[in-house]
Specification:
Elements lengths: L3 H15 L12 H11 L6 H11 L5 H22 L9 E2 L2 E2 L1 H4 L2 H19 L8 H15 L5 H10 L9 H12 L1 H15 L3 H28 L2 H4 L5 H5 L4 H5 L1 H18 L8 H12 L3
Antiparallel strand pairs: 1-2
Helix pairs in contact: 2-6, 3-4, 3-10, 4-6, 4-10, 7-10, 8-9, 10-11, 11-15, 11-16, 15-16
């Protein structure tokens, strides 16, 4: 049996050792924003998205170094989204990964700028020849991330719906709405991680479609698992304030269907995701194990 927790931990350790190299602090008081950027990126985390870039790249015989810059850029963009998500105007959270959120560690203005800084720096990193020698590959990586993180059908759109879901008309289809929110809010960056590995590896159409199906399944299941942990997780393990969804009146799979039905939906999504990887044979064993870990985790 694949020990995915150990594999993910080993990758995270190696990835974390490389991250500081991306953050050379400038001289002068303006370095405060770079410090806040580094604090937020280095503030723990499972490194699931970078690992997905690496592991999907491995399907096409790419290694750690060949996927590092893309993985780092994605983690920077993800960290920016968390900084802004934690702000008082949004989720108003004091904890992230068991440590003070960026606006608590620094201040609200610095946190906003740190998020902006990570967002723009992510694309600077992707545009570097160190990411990929082929300019067309770099352009495709940049375009895909901009769409996946954007306001039209990406992460920002999902955040917008999540903020105002409880204020939508009473006749709104709850299941369709929450699936759409969770597919965009969490799922888009997870989808990008798998897409990026395929882009770097020169995947064909069938391979890309298989990875897209896998990513959709684990993306929604990941958010459902987060929703479940918000209700019954241990705050020390989860590392953030719990019971926020209930207290804020948010619509989730848990509030719609209850804990057990939500678990069953997540399990079904994971089985579908695993099946989508069948074309890769044994090379996809780690990705299948990761899919199971997503719904078995306690943090």
């Amino acid at each position: 049996m694949t020990d995915i927790k150990s594999i993910l931990a080993a990758y995270s350790e190696r990835f974390n050792q490389q991250l500081p190299h991306f953050f050379t602090l400038p001289d002068g008081p303006e370095s405060r924003v770079a410090e806040a950027m580094r604090y937020s990126v280095m503030n723990g985390g499972k490194r699931l998205r970078p690992y997905l870039v690496y592991e999907t790249g491995r399907l096409f015989n790419l290694g750690f170094e060949e996927t590092l810059h893309t993985a780092a850029a994605l983690e920077m963009l993800h960290s920016y989204s968390l900084i802004h998500d934690d702000l008082p105007a949004m989720d108003n959270d004091d904890l992230r990964r068991g440590k003070p959120t960026c606006h608590k560690q620094y201040d609200e203005a610095t946190a906003i700028l740190a998020g902006d800084g990570l967002l723009t720096y992510a694309f600077e990193v992707l545009s570097s020849p160190k990411t990929a020698a082929d300019t067309s590959v770099r352009c495709e990586l940049i375009s895909a991330l901009a769409k996946g993180a954007g306001a039209f059908d990406g992460m920002i759109a999902g955040q917008m719906l999540d903020l105002y879901a409880e204020k939508l008309p009473a006749d709104t289809d709850g299941e369709k709405l929450i699936k759409h929110i969770e597919e965009m809010k969490t799922g888009r960056l997870i989808s990008y991680a798998c897409e990026a590995g395929a882009i770097l590896g020169g995947a064909d159409t069938q391979q890309r479609q298989a990875l897209a199906a896998y990513a959709r399944g684990i993306g929604i299941a990941f958010q459902i698992a987060d929703d479940i942990l918000d209700v019954e997780g241990e705050q020390e393990l989860v590392g953030k304030t719990l019971n926020k969804d209930v207290n804020q009146g948010k619509v989730t799979f848990v509030t719609l269907y209850g804990l057990e039905n939500a678990r069953q939906i997540a399990k079904q999504l994971i089985e579908q995701a695993k099946e989508a990887l069948s074309i890769f044979g044994s090379k996809a064993e780690n990705l299948k194990a990761l899919a199971q870990y997503i719904i078995d985790r306690n943090y």
